[in-house]
Fold:
Amino acid sequence: VQLQASGGGLEQPGGSLRLSCAASGSLYAIMTMGWYRQAPGKQRELVARITNGGVTNYADFAKGRFTISRDNAKNTVYLQMNSLKPEDTAVYYCNVYTWTATNYWGQGTQVTVSS
Structure:
């Protein structure tokens, strides 16, 4: 599975950004698609994920502000981020988890929230 992420950038506090990630390759093996993030000096953490059936799971910090969605026809997962805070600053990674218990990662996209 190959992942190509896009979106991200610099946004002011309270603003919004949308991340996209398109998957290609062995798509039949995908079980969940999601987003993780890693801030400087911190471990990578789950932001949100979505199953093939559309069941979603969010980190506490993302609930009410971020929305994950998936277009199965385009094999693309999206992360809509609203009410951004400076502490949301991180590199965001697209993730795919397969039925063979394998994680695949996108190249990472920088999100910076600053005035």
